[in-house]
Amino acid sequence: MTTFAPPFRPAGRPTTPMQAVILAGGLGTRLRPLTDKVPKVMVNVRGEEFLWYVVRWLERNEIKDIVICAAHLWEEIARRVNSYHQPGVTLRLSVEKEPLGTAGAVKNAERLLEDEFLLINGDTYLPITYGRILSRWKKVREQFDCLLVAYSNREKIAANDTAVDREGVVTAYSKRSGEKMQYVNAGLVVLKKTVLEAFPADVPVSLEEEIFPELISRRKMAAVIIHERYYDIGTPERLKAFEEYLDRHPEAIARGIMG
Predict the structure, then answer these.
(1) Region 45-57 average pLDDT
(2) 4 has pLDDT over 70
(3) Least buried of 6, 91, 147, 161, by fewest C-beta within 10 Å?
């Protein structure tokens, strides 16, 4: 199994230049009333919107090309993106006219995408060294179309949803069959753009319900197992857990990122 350095050691440069795509279209219904007027990724956490914690960690990992896929209340994200100024970093916004699902949102941004990219859940903070993920991808990219980062779930923070065989290939993925699974999706995959080619534009498509099963059926989805936990803000309880993480790691607070 792959292990990673603790958070906030110098991340170092990725072994391969890589673009990051952040899914930021979630409604955040379980966080209401915090999300009545702002999208989930813009919920304020310890003085800064959550999205900038994700962006800051990408910057620490020398990832300089970032695309944000937005839908619900996208104007709030656009307002902040337009005021973002960090030398050497390109931050662009892709907006859905209608909600298109997790994969449909990426398809909608297709013109902005590189041939391979990191795809990140915008409500999830994963403080690991991305260079380790990209080193693994470099070894398997000729055989696979996707690399999923799977958490060992030793803290039991969510129901398991991912099964992986001894060869490191994902054999099953389901949010509804946790008893058959070993790991949990940590909210980060490396994906080839060609995976999107079969899907029409402007049609809702789910990454979890349509893309993953198709890749799994062809044994084209690899996994890398991590033991560092992720933090998401999908519920008030999980938001509190991230706040407690920040209390232990005040250096992670993203103040000043907007320049």
Answers:
(1) 92
(2) no
(3) 6
Res. 3: pLDDT tops 90: no
- pLDDT per residue over 137-167, tens digit each? 999 999 999 999 999 998 998 999 999 999 9
